[in-house]
TrEMBL record:
Protein name from the UniProt record: ATP-dependent DNA helicase RecG
Domain Helicase C-terminal: 480-646
Family affiliation: Belongs to the helicase family. RecG subfamily.
Any matching Pfam family: Helicase_C
SUPFAM superfamilies tied to this protein: Nucleic acid-binding proteins, P-loop containing nucleoside triphosphate hydrolases
EC number: 5.6.2.4
A Gene Ontology biological process term: DNA recombination
Signal sequence, start to end: none
Alphabetized SMART domains for the sequence: DEXDc, HELICc
Catalytic activity: Couples ATP hydrolysis with the unwinding of duplex DNA by translocating in the 3'-5' direction; ATP + H2O = ADP + phosphate + H(+)
GO molecular function terms listed in the Swiss-Prot or TrEMBL record: 3'-5' DNA helicase activity; ATP binding; ATP hydrolysis activity; DNA binding
Domain of life: Bacteria
Protein species of origin: Saccharomonospora glauca K62
Alphabetic keyword roster: ATP-binding, DNA damage, DNA recombination, DNA repair, DNA-binding, Helicase, Hydrolase, Isomerase, Nucleotide-binding
Length: 719
């Protein structure tokens, strides 16, 4: 018999165990049994071929439609082309070499599982030399012999090269036969309270469901394990930070914050005012604020953050603003100084009476500037210090840091936020305000950001113009690409400006890959200058330009001295040139949904509608195209983040990804399992309140320890 901690070698034999270890990183019985089926094929129901993605390892259940044999051109032998279908779409399987037996076996009309890497071949999808297992009635080596009662449902596992789904299925079967029932990690009262089966039952049922009901309840139980693990850790975290105190910064009348409000050139939106009040109340207290502020690009988060920082300055303390890149930090410092005017010129000629100082502290400062900046932070002369997250790692000391504002949360990991908390000293944490333009669905906020309060700005300041987005399928409709450049010229002729964004800079050494590398700034610029954009004033911006050059280019563009800015994603956030009305994004499929959304927020900032053109060679029907279609379909960031989450999940399911990389969240869907997440949160809260270290609950303690680390890290990386 075997338990979950046992090595697989003793259960399935060395050969299979080695294959599972090297291909999927599965080493123990528990690893294998938590390698759940990606999905379940129903005998007779074929896999939807439209959902397959180039470059991924997939397992499809399909019917053979036709076969043809062609001689190979370059050497002796032949290619057997087998066309398989899901009833509407087709996929070609190419087998190389002389294999008369294969031709006999792969007859039209038969059904089987086919596994391999999806490639594009002459504009259609292909599997080259796939592994396969025929499963229709006249095959006697099919799954029916492997699994006697699994006559209807076929589990399809995340597979890897050389380790197709059905081999994994056999190993799982063997392992389940040997499995011993151990003490359940979830205590009995909890299982009873929520109607959950035991782990032993659930593991059997998820791999070999005898009915849909059994499968549903198994999945529910295993999702609980995941949700509870996350929530337990979060509950513990809340407990430990709950004991910390923060520097209290009550609002002060007659201070710099009031002076700033008086001279604001616009009226705050209702949302800005409400969120501002909530933040103000938090800052006044001695409990560390931990708040996420989400709002569309251009919704006016910066003003909200600045008002919070000024309240802190009024209390005689300091605020730090962290941006994801140096370019952005510099830009933030500039725009804060602009917004503040003479209120930011303390000690200078022309500085206002109640002024403070905004200090930029980045790696590209000269030694002398740097020394001064460090001094300003340490002495308290700088009420506001702006930098990148490097500010935390370096030996920067503050006189009295009370608030840290982080712009664009997605670039910051949880660890960085933790590092931050300890900055203010023993048992004292600064208040933290995190700003993001990519809204986060409630369940994600509860899970990944479980310890953050969230507020949203759902309304754009008046005077914003709509952005329309169009996907330009360059592979299918090359003429559309010409139209893109024409359109851009038209905007310039109207006196407007344009961005062209590329995924790559182009000064990297050439790669070995045969696939076309993504479009690069340095390659595209001469092509445009000598081609479709000849005669226009074109500027170049990317992360490897020296800092002063970057600044000069940005300034020239902002001043209207350039018509077109060809850039990498350095312009993603914060850049504000209202006269720019069109953005062309090359190889748009290389960017994530939220990144595209951020990027296009750079246009339509003035009173002219913005236009965003997403150029791609991804083929229709791929999930890359589905992502672009989502970006095209809505400019509502909240809606988009839901679509994105959904698409990512579907991609995972259909892709049967090569990597079997273990991660805590395998079944739990942050989108669909809101109820489980909410319930497990309440349970975790209760358990941790009574037993903070989980000493009375060793099963739960182990569950939490096992799952938590890579899950959070991974979600953050993917975003
Ligand atoms: P975000 O950081 O949310 O993308 P910003 O704070 O940078 O947005 O605001 C974008 C622009 O809108 C800035 O120029 C800012 O001064 C302006 N703005 C902010 N709030 C308002 C408002 N209530 N009314 C008009 N303009 C505003
Ligand atoms: Mg901003």
């Amino acid at each position: 018999m075997a338990v979950l901690a046992d090595r697989l070698t003793d259960v399935v034999g060395a050969r299979t165990a080695n294959a599972l270890a090297s291909a999927l990183d599965l080493h123990t019985v528990g690893d294998l049994l938590r390698h759940y089926p990606r999905r379940y094929a129903q005998r007779g129901e074929l896999t939807d071929i439209a959902g397959l993605e180039i470059g991924e390892h997939v397992t499809v259940l399909a019917r053979i439609e036709s076969t043809t044999k062609k001689p190979m051109r370059t050497r002796k032998g032949s290619i057997l082309e087998v066309t398989i279908t899901d009833g509407s779409r087709r996929l070609t399987c190419a087998f190389f070499g002389n294999q008369t037996w294969r031709e006999r076996e792969l007859r039209p009309g038969r059904t089987g599982l086919f596994a391999g890497k999806v490639t594009a071949f002459r504009r259609s999808l292909q599997l080259a030399n796939p592994e396969y297992e025929l499963i229709d009635s006249d095959s006697d080596d099919g799954l029916s012999t492997v699994d006697d009662f699994l006559s209807r449902i076929i589990p399809v596992y995340p597979a890897a090269q050389g380790l197709p789904s059905w081999r994994i299925s056999k190993a799982v079967h063997q392992t389940l036969e040997m499995l011993d029932a151990e003490p359940d990690p979830l205590p009995e009262w909890l299982r009873r309270e929520h109607g959950l089966p035991t782990l032993f039952e659930a593991l059997h049922a998820i791999h070999r469901p005898r009915s849909d009901a059994e499968l549903r309840s198994a999945r529910m139980r295993l999702k609980w394990d995941e949700a509870l693990a996350v929530q337990l850790v979060l509950a513990q975290r809340r407990r430990s930070t709950g004991g910390r105190t923060a520097p209290a910064c009550p609002p002060k009348s007659g201070g710099i914050a009031e002076a700033f409000d008086e001279r604001l050139p616009f009226r705050l939106t209702e949302g800005q005012r409400e969120v501002g009040e909530a933040i103000s109340a938090d800052l006044a207290g001695e409990h560390p604020m931990n708040r996420l502020l989400q709002g569309e690009v251009g919704s006016g988060k910066t003003v909200v953050a600045l008002r919070a920082m000024l309240q802190v300055v009024d209390a005689g303390r300091q605020a730090a603003l962290l941006a994801p890149t140096e370019v952005l930090a510099a830009q933030h410092a500039r725009s804060l100084r602009e917004l503040l005017g003479d209120l930011a010129r303390a000690g200078e000629l022309g500085g206002a009476e109640r002024a403070t100082r905004v200090t930029l502290l980045t790696g590209s400062l000269s030694a002398r500037q740097r020394k001064q900046a460090l001094l300003d932070a340490a002495s308290g002369a700088a009420g506001i210090v702006v930098g990148t997250h490097a500010l935390l790692g370096e030996h920067v000391s503050f006189a009295d840091l009370a608030l840290v504002v982080i712009d664009e949360q997605h670039r910051f990991g949880v660890e960085q936020r933790d590092a931050l908390r300890s900055r203010a000293g023993e048992d004292i944490s600064p208040h933290v305000l995190v700003m993001t333009a990519t809204p986060i669905p409630r369940t994600v906020a509860m899970t990944v950001y479980g310890d953050l309060e969230t507020s949203s700005l759902r309304q754009l300041p008046s005077g914003r113009s709509p952005i329309s987005t169009t996907v330009v399928p360059a592979a299918e409709k090359p003429a559309w690409l010409e139209r893109v450049w024409q359109r851009l010229r038209e905007e310039v002729a109207e006196g407007h400006q344009a961005y062209v964004v590329c995924p790559r800079i182009g000064d990297e050494p050439p790669s070995e890959k045969t696939e076309r590398p993504p479009v690069a700034v340095l390659d595209l610029v001469p092509e445009l200058e000598n081609g479709p954009l000849a005669g226009l004033r074109i500027g170049v911006l990317h992360g490897r330009l020296p800092g002063d050059e970057k600044d000069a280019v940005m300034r020239a563009f902002a001043a209207g001295e350039l018509d077109v800015l060809v850039a990498t994603t350095v312009i993603e956030v914060g850049v504000n040139v209202p006269n720019a009305t069109v953005m062309v994004i090359m190889d748009a499929d290389r960017f994530g949904v939220s990144q595209l959304h951020q990027l296009r927020g750079r246009v339509g900032r003035g009173n002219v509608p913005g236009l965003c053109l997403l150029v791609t060679e991804a083929l229709e029907g791929t999930s890359a195209r589905a992502r672009l279609a989502a970006v095209e379909s809505t400019t509502d960031g909240f809606e988009l983040s839901k679509l994105d989450l959904e698409l990512r999940r579907e991609g995972d399911i259909l892709g049967a990804a090569q990597s079997g990389k273990r991660s805590g969240l395998k079944l739990l869907s942050l989108l669909r399992d809101e109820e489980i997440i909410a319930r497990s949160r309440r349970v975790a809260q209760r358990v941790v309140a009574a037993d903070p270290e989980l000493t009375e609950h060793p099963g739960l303690a182990a569950l939490a320890a096992d799952m938590i680390d890579d899950e959070r890290a991974e979600y953050l990386e993917k975003t």
